[in-house]
Amino acid sequence: MCSSSWKTMAVALLLIELWFTIESSLAHPDKIVKLPGQPPRLSFQQFSGYVTVDYKKHTALFYYFVEAETDPASKPLVLWLNGGPGCSSLGVGAFSENGPFRPNGEFLVKNDYSWNREANMLYLETPIGVGFSYSTNTSSYEAVDDEITARDNLVFLQNWYNKFPNYRHRDLYITGESYAGHYIPQLAKLMVEFNKKQNLFNLKGIALGNPVLEFATDFNSRAEYFWSHGLISDSTYNMFTSVCNYSRYVSEYYRDSVSPSCSKVMSQVSRETSKFVDKYDVTLDVCISSVLSQSMAINPQQVSERVDVCVEDKIVNYLNRKDVQKALHARLVGVRRWTVCSNILDYQLLNLEMPTISIVGSLIKSGIPVLVYSGDQDSVIPLTGSRSLVSRLAKELELETTVPYRVWFEGKQVGGWTQVYGNILSFATIRGASHEAPFSQPERSLMLFKSFLEGKPLPEVF
Fold this sequence. Notes:
This protein has 462 residues and is an alpha/beta fold. Among the domains are: 1-29; 46-215 and 349-379 and 430-440, Alpha/Beta hydrolase fold, catalytic domain (Rossmann fold), CATH 3.40.50.1820; 220-296, no CATH class. The chain contains 14 helices and 13 strands. The chain has helices spanning 3-27, 89-98, 146-163, 180-195, 215-228, 234-242, 246-254, 260-273, 309-319, 322-327, 357-365, 383-396, 437-440, 442-454; strands spanning 46-54, 59-66, 77-81, 101-104, 107-110, 120-125, 134-135, 172-177, 203-209, 370-375, 401-410, 413-421, 425-430. The strands form 2 sheets. Strands 1, 2, 3, 6, 7, 8, 9, 10, 11, 12 and 13 form an 11-stranded mixed beta sheet that branches. It has a two-stranded antiparallel sheet with strand order 4-5. Helix 2 (89-98) crosses helix 9 (309-319), helix 4 runs parallel beside helix 11 and helix 5 (215-228) packs antiparallel against helix 6 (234-242). The longest helix is centred in the first third of the chain and has 25 residues, at 3-27. It is globular, with a radius of gyration of 23 Å.
């Protein structure tokens, strides 16, 4: 073949490639071409943008979606929600915990234990007013509660499927942590109800990390955790359990009626535990990367503190870069800067007192598997409260133990402990993990996630 023919073919191939690129862009307007500073030669696609959930109020939720590293067509879809309430699944979940990258200066560093090794990961900034999610009607930020959030999240998923119809009816899992112990069960309940009319959501399971499930049990387990880990004295422990427990203090705090007795107890607890110990990971120094500030709302005595500024600053700086926002198809509406946790959202924090463990029970009755897992170094929502709630629920549902309480392994080390009831309700700890377990123990968290998706017990041997 002559050289001119080769040149003609080369030009034709370039034109075909350009056509496919343009067609792909048109088919997926939310596709991310490249994030500033990302590693070269990625094996997966990324998307981000907005899904409108209320056209009258011009309300839109922001999402970040990364397809699985390999064979995304065969992998399930996993929705990840962070808590707060009011903290970002983009900044906390995606960019510090289990997403593909973590900001480090001008660059993004590859996370070798990203959960998109096992699934297509969808991160949602919810409720309205969190991160890049916005409404042009500022009244939308007022009196937001669990019911509104669950409804918006359901509408988001319905409309997101219109953007990505190939994921409609794909196996779907919902995971998250902290106040997502409210978000996730309530969203899953709406899905189950919706499916009775129109079978859209192929929900296969939910996983809740260090979750708020039952206000009093979760919060009051903190006293024993503090005491058993040497953070408070015997006398303070006695006061913390008899004079004023933590759930009472939080209830009084959010009603602007803190009693003198509770104020005295909490002052003593704060003095002994010290502001120099990270309550979200009691084994780490305060500036070593472990957690972000997503749970500040449920720790009112610490509201003025900044947790883990070393990591948070990197994320805040990265997501406030104009070139990054452009690449993400994101915009700031009504705020000057992107923040980890919203400072414009007025969330009804007394929703904390509404238990969601009963909703978890109803989901199990509907045949949806549930995993509750705990980073065992977290004193905010300690493992002891979560474990007792799961055990109590198993008894109420008359579920027999199918995997007795035992250790599980990852990388020839003990990864944590686990127990399974009726092959549908599971509890697990992640050894050495913080409130944000995938950040502090990425390898062990990935193993737990993989086992959860496969519906298999955690490894009994290494």
